[in-house]
Design a protein that fits this description.
Rieske Iron-sulfur Protein; 2 domains; 11 strands; four-stranded antiparallel sheet; binds FE2/S2 (inorganic) cluster; 35% helix; alpha+beta
């Protein structure tokens, strides 16, 4: 799954989570139901013979207080009539002085904190998943001029004909011109510009279980040390448990520069694809199914 696809999933999920949190923290209290018997309670009362007429009349706290005062003074409460006071001229309230209730404060604080948490989590997710704009794996990486790449191919260690670029997690391999016609029949056209220029960019990750696949100077193949999968010099499957050839990236040539787009992974060729007919050129470097 590409980073863009992951983003398309993560962003809507974060939005839905934010909406749910805001809804849960701002909805009106369930206190509206206080003082009423639930359906289950009424059912239990009915089961033991209580009817609605047997319900205890609900008395508010204010009524209890009033009854206690009446009992203490032994009569009815007579409100004291103050002399009429002059009417104060109305002045608008000072909004600063009004303040907020404790409920409002707690609601706003919880919404604010959850919002901050969600925003931080979302920003961290986006920063992690967003294709890098400044180079490095996951973006377009300029590897140097074609002359630079050819120099690496000619002098690379431990095996010549393999050019490894750790920043891009990529091998830039020479692709023979005589194999171009066969390659265009089986390969995604996004890698054709690289093939036409004489190169193929292979992702270092083994399609079997993800180990880094090193080159072998003697066999001139790629040989995975984990479970013995082997690939020819252009990453086509030759031996082992791997389900396909090595995955690859599009190459573009801009002027003299060779640029590999590691943000676009093109799935490796199916087993049996063999465009170069390159056989093993010497002993293997690893033990396993292809050792020899
Ligand atoms: S990870 Fe490479 S063969 Fe298993």
């Amino acid at each position: 799954m590409s980073a863009t696809q992951v983003l398309l999933i993560v962003v809507p999920v974060l939005v839905v989570l934010a909406v749910v949190v805001i809804y849960l923290t701002t909805r009106s209290s369930d206190a509206a139901g206080l003082g009423r018997l639930s359906r289950e309670t009424k059912a239990r009362d009915a089961a033991v013979g209580l009817t609605a007429s047997d319900d205890i009349e609900m008395v508010t706290g204010r009524e209890v207080e009033k009854a206690a005062v009446l009992a203490r003074i032994g009569g009815d409460i007579v409100p004291v009539q103050d002399a009429p006071a002059p009417i104060e001229p109305w002045t608008p309230p000072d909004l600063e002085a009004l303040g907020v209730t404790r409920r409002q404060f707690l609601n706003r604080a919880s919404i604010g904190l959850m919002g901050l948490g969600l925003a931080g989590f979302g920003a961290a997710s986006l920063a992690f998943l967003w294709p890098k704009a400044g180079g490095g794996f996951g973006s377009s990486v300029k590897l140097g001029t074609i002359a630079d790449v050819n120099k690496v191919l000619a002098s690379s260690q431990p095996a010549v004909n393999f050019a490894y670029y750790s920043d891009a997690q990529t091998y830039i391999q020479p692709f023979p011109a005589e194999a171009l016609e066969a390659a265009k029949l089986v390969y995604d056209e996004r890698i054709w510009p690289g093939l036409e220029a004489g190169y193929v960019a292979l992702w270092q990750k083994c399609p079997h279980l993800g180990c880094k696949v090193p080159e072998c100077g003697t066999s001139q193949w790629f040989e995975c040390p984990c479970h013995g999968s082997q690939y020819n010099r252009v990453g086509e499957k030759k031996l082992g448990p791997t389900p396909r050839g090595m995955d690859r990236f599009p190459i573009t040539i801009e002027g003299e520069d060779l640029i590999v787009n590691t943000g676009v992974v093109i799935i490796g060729p199916t087993p049996g694809v063999n465009t170069t007919n390159q056989g093993k050129e010497g002993p293997s470097c690893t033990t396993g199914p292809g050792h020899g």
